[in-house]
Amino acid sequence: MTAGRRGLLAAGLSALAAPALAQLPQGCRGQVFLTIDTGWSREAEAIAAILRRHAVPATLFIADEPTYRGDTSLSESWAPFWRARAAEGHAFASHTWRHWYFANDSGPGRTTFRSRRGQGEVVLDQAALCAELARPIGALRRFAPEARVLPLWRAPGGIVTRNAVAMASACGLRHQGWTRNGFLGDELDSAAHPNAALLRRNLAHIGPGEVLVMHWGVRSRREPFAGILEALVTGLLARGLCFALLPPEGVA
């Protein structure tokens, strides 16, 4: 990929078109950054309503994953959902298109990308990785041309390789994970980690500067995390923590 093409890709992915949801209130003791990855999406509308009710901005990492409807999260049937989130001022970033996992680096300028659902694996070179990361943003742009897109990406599971990070950087994208206390636990087994325990842990440990991660619903979790999201949001707000979008440069 030429420097010119990389520049065009980065410019397209980093366009900032929509305003933030709200100004930070006076007396804010510190910021936290809520990020939401695509997933089973069964609780997506309920989660969106909670965020809207409390004017909570989130950065949404999007991939084309299977959903509870029998479709995928970036199919045309989800266009109204993503348009609504863009209109609310949430920001977006890439979570890869296929939501496969980076397994290893197979040589200079190469990285192995592997399905955990038995769909195979591919070796991505520079151009192929840039295309993989750009494709979900291209789908979003068809649904919501005005969406605010950040020059960030997140690997599925947060699992990266050295080459994947370097190659994505050459595409104009910085990898964004989450902080240790920002793992909200919605992927954990609810028998071992019930909602009440997750709520207590999160309220006790989340502090200023945390990057929080959750999903629009997790298929395997029997007690949906959405059931405690409002209590978590109001609890953090009551402690003087304010929600903010990730900055374009990300948060280390």
Could you explain how this protein is built, in words?
This protein has 252 residues and is α/β, with parallel strands linked by helices. Helices cover 33% and strands 19% of the residues. It contains seven helices and ten strands. Strands 1, 2, 3, 7, 8, 9 and 10 form a seven-stranded parallel beta sheet that branches. Strands 4-5-6 form a three-stranded antiparallel beta sheet. Helix 3 links the parallel strand 2 and strand 3. Helix 2 packs parallel to helix 7 and helix 4 packs across helix 5. The two termini are 28 Å apart.
The largest β sheet comes out as: 7 strands, parallel
Distance separating the two termini = 28 Å
Flag low-confidence runs.
Answer: 1-22
Helix content: 25-40%
Strand content: 15-25%
The string of secondary-structure elements, in order, is: HEHEHEEEEHEHEHEHE
> What general form does the structure show?
globular
Alpha-beta content class: alpha/beta
What's the rounded overall pLDDT mean?
A: 92
Tell me how many strands there are: 10
> What is the overall number of helices?
7
Q: What gyration radius follows from the Cα positions, in whole Å?
A: 18 Å
